[in-house]
Amino acid sequence: MRILLWHVHGSWTTAFVHGSHEYLLPVVPDRGPDGRGRARTWDWPPSAIEVTPDEAREAQVDAVILQRPVELERLAREWLGDRRLPTIYVEHNAPQGRIAEMRHPAADRDDLTVVHVTHFNDLFWDCGSTRTRVIEHGVVDPGYRYTGETRRAAVVINEARRRARVTGTDLLERFATDGVPIDLFGMDAENVGPPTRGIDDVPQHRLHDELARRRVYLHPIRWTSLGLSLIEAMHLGMPVVALATTEAPEAVPAAAGVLSTSVERLSEAARDFLADPDRARKAGVAARAAALRRFGLRRFLRDWDGLLEEVAA
Predict the structure, then answer these.
(1) For the whole model, what pTM was predicted?
(2) Which CA distances in Å does 217 have to 15, 62, 164, 193?
(3) For the chain, what percent of residues have pLDDT higher than 70?
């Protein structure tokens, strides 16, 4: 199939374009949000092809993947005209607002399918009569890289200051002052400030090695979808200490680390891993095994192939 989709989430798209189809990626001259084209920091196969607006209007397209309201409202029509094509809306995020008002922008549509990346999101979003499906994340396996040689906790949050309480940025100081030294990776990380040590936007090809050197992965997220950085850390063989919120309790088994809504309990667990390399390594091995079972690339692509065949039919 020839599938048109916008480059919105680099890590998710990296897994998706490793399938057996041809992927048309809108590109505009400034590579802004309306058309970022191919990724510059991820390794994508040749089947991920950039198309301009003129090329997209003339292209054979078998299905469209939407991921943002703006694509639903105007971009798909601007790039493809009035063609009626099999359409899937991938919802990457947990809903915001009061629970009675968590209405999805694609609610009550009979012309598309909404795909949630977690069962938690499917539970909380109100999609009305629109058909929904859950296809959990898949990850291109970076391989077991864990050394744990650096006695610090790794955290990955992009734009941590802006996202604030949603991503648990305010909790980092509490962990750090409670004996858990933290290295924060991600865009704008260097501006979070002490006692957290910010390491700003490490290139993707280096990030996995940098994470795997840290003794434990800390996931302080209060309310977002299940972060791919957490799943990647598990693939690397890192033990996990995480808030027991959203999908994390389903994704991280007990053998792989510690989950709790108590910051004090999580600080204690992180300190224990920092002080006991053997225990940390054992939990990390369990984390990797769990991630390979549940979030492997083969399962992810198989699930997507099944849905694409359905909507195309």
Answers:
(1) 0.93
(2) 22, 40, 19, 19
(3) 100
Residue ranges of the alpha helices (H) in the chain?
10-16, 53-58, 69-70, 76-80, 119-124, 160-163, 171-177, 204-213, 228-236, 248-251, 263-275, 277-294, 297-312
- Residues near 77 by beta carbon (within 8 Å), at least 6 away in sequence: none
Confidence tier at 305 by pLDDT (50, 70, 90): very high
Q: How far apart are CA 248 and CA 119, in angstroms?
A: 11
Summary mean pLDDT of the chain: 95
Torsion of CA 184, 190, 193, 195, to 10 degrees: 40
How far, CA to CA in Å, does 208 sit from each of 15, 216, 235, 296, 306? 16, 13, 10, 17, 31
Residue 119, classed as helix, strand or coil, is: helix
Residue 200's pLDDT band, with cuts at 50, 70 and 90, is confident
pLDDT tens profile 148-195: 999 999 999 988 888 889 999 999 999 999 999 999 998 888 888 788
How far, in Å, CA of 263 to CA of 79, rounded?
47
**For residue 159, how many C-alpha atoms fall within 13 Å in the half-sphere facing its CB?**
3
Q: Which of 18, 21, 37 is nearest to 29 (CA)?
A: 37
How far is residue 212's CA from residue 107's CA, in Å, rounded to a whole number?
Answer: 41
